[in-house]
From TrEMBL:
Keyword Ion transport: no
Name of the protein in its database record: Sigma 54-interacting transcriptional regulator
PROSITE patterns: SIGMA54_INTERACT_1, SIGMA54_INTERACT_2, SIGMA54_INTERACT_3, SIGMA54_INTERACT_4
Any one of the GO BP annotations: regulation of DNA-templated transcription
Length: 465
């Protein structure tokens, strides 16, 4: 006979709190318990804010990527699952909870966490002969064949940002990945639409299938149909004698990313609509081929306005716009600039073998700018500043054009003479430069490209003292 247990409720909760990644649900899929580390993970994704918000909530509404509900099926059984976290594979166990022969819920908990992974790999490789096992690479390849093919250029962990807007975006990506519906990504140039598409694919059930990326603007209009839908042997002059698969057939069981979908010729749009509706492509030359493809489209244009102008089919627009994701411009999450700069500078330093860093005053410049080219423009400017700097400190001197652009953007010229515009522009440039360098006239003169004596003269001229 077992001795009587003396564990209190507090003891039991303490034990549960020490189980990594623990999720407990009832038989209806309602959340009953999350371990502290699991709560923190989901809070970062914006699933809930207060610790008690999740109690009784459908687990799929706060954690759409979980597989725990598989244990609630009639044939539900214990299983081991792999998933990705912070770019590393984790391993978890899912089990149904049975009491007196009846299903009352399910639990899900980590067997191997990201924090354990490196130590596990090192100890395993040390135990193998000469470390030749290379277990990490093999397991990653087993988990996701696209990794084995080195197609995973981007995933959700490469989306840099901790602002509220970027956390919201990551949550939208996870929800989109759980679905198999078409996705329309809209955002300005340079906001990372390709990165979002890759992240959705590699988090989805199609992650082991191909991801085919197509820029609609890069394909000549005369070739767009043959490239997308394929063709039969001898179907037109110059066709391969064996025929050719189109991008849809190449993406079978995977994802087709159509970037700049607004550039898709009007005559090709009905065929794309048919593929989305019927699940089959009409090859040029007559053959029909069934395909299982999820389409993710992206644009920097207003497709609804294009529909109104009859430049884009309305039925195709609604078929693509099932799940809509907005890729935010950098000006809407400037608080992420410091993190973006740090990550990109680390990459540049690794490539070049330097230890360069950005002078603190440059950040003030970056925060004042509107970034019409978004993150791509930020990275390009950083690379130029990195290349042009003469020592390990990248200063405002490397960003003269950006500095002048900020000053010019603040000017109004309406109703003024040319000389008045020049004087006002010069006065404002000197005023802002002095403020930027906190009154240091030597630095201000160097930035403006004039002598210190000339600067004093202009300060007196414009009454800036």
């Amino acid at each position: 006979m077992d001795k009587k247990q003396n564990l209190t409720l507090e003891d039991c909760l303490l034990i549960l709190d020490h189980i990594q990644g623990l999720v407990v649900i009832d038989k209806k899929g309602r959340t009953q318990y999350l371990s502290p580390d699991m709560k923190e993970r989901l809070k970062r994704f914006g699933a809930f804010s207060d610790d008690t918000d999740y109690i009784g909530t459908d687990i799929m509404s706060i954690h759409p990527m979980t597989k725990i509900t598989s244990a609630l099926k009639e044939d539900g059984d214990e299983e081991i699952v792999f998933y990705m976290a912070s770019g590393l594979p984790n391993m978890a166990r899912i089990k149904p909870l049975i009491r007196d022969g009846n299903l009352i819920g399910a639990i899900d908990y980590d067997l191997l966490t990201s924090q354990d992974w490196e130590g596990f790999i090192k100890s395993t490789e040390q135990a193998s002969t000469g470390g030749g096992l290379n277990l990490q690479e093999n397991l990653l390849a087993l988990m996701n064949k696209s990794l084995e093919k080195k197609e995973t250029r981007y995933n959700i962990d490469t989306i840099i940002g901790q602002s509220a807007r970027m956390m919201e975006l990551k949550q939208e990506i996870r929800r989109a990945a759980y679905s198999d519906s078409q996705v329309l990504i809209r955002g300005e140039t340079g906001t990372g639409k390709e990165l979002i598409a890759n992240s959705i694919h590699h988090l989805s059930r199609r992650a082991n299938g191909p991801l085919i990326e197509v820029n609609c603007a890069a394909i000549p209009e005369s070739l767009i149909e043959s490239e997308l839908f394929g063709y039969e042997p001898g179907s037109f002059t110059g066709a391969r004698k064996e025929g050719s698969k189109g991008f849809f057939e190449m993406a079978d069981k995977g994802t087709l990313f159509l970037d700049e979908i607004d550039q898709l010729p009007y005559h090709a749009q009905p065929k794309l609509l048919r593929v989305l509706q019927e699940g089959e492509v009409d090859r040029i030359g007559g053959a029909k081929v069934s395909v299982d493809v999820r389409v993710i489209a992206a644009t920097n244009k207003d497709l609804k306005a294009m529909v109104a102008d009859r430049a884009f089919r309305e039925d195709l627009y609604y078929r693509l716009n099932v799940i809509k994701i907005e890729s935010p411009p950098l000006r809407e999450h400037k608080e992420d600039i410091r993190l973006l700069v740090r990550e990109h500078l680390e990459r540049l330093n690794r490539q070049a073998g330097y230890k360069k860093e950005l002078d603190e005053t440059v950040f003030e410049l970056f925060y004042a700018y509107s970034w019409p080219g978004n993150i791509r423009e930020l990275f390009n400017l950083l690379e130029r500043g990195f290349a042009m700097s003469v020592n390990n400190k990248i200063t405002v001197k490397e960003f003269d054009e950006l500095f002048l652009e900020i000053i010019k953007s603040s000017q109004s010229t309406e109703g003024k003479t040319l000389q008045a515009i020049r004087d006002e522009a010069e006065r404002e440039a000197i005023k802002r430069t002095l403020a930027f360098f906190e009154g240091n006239k030597s630095k201000a003169a160097a930035q403006l490209g004039i002598t210190r004596g000339n600067l004093y003269h202009k300060i007196n001229k414009y009454g800036l003292e």
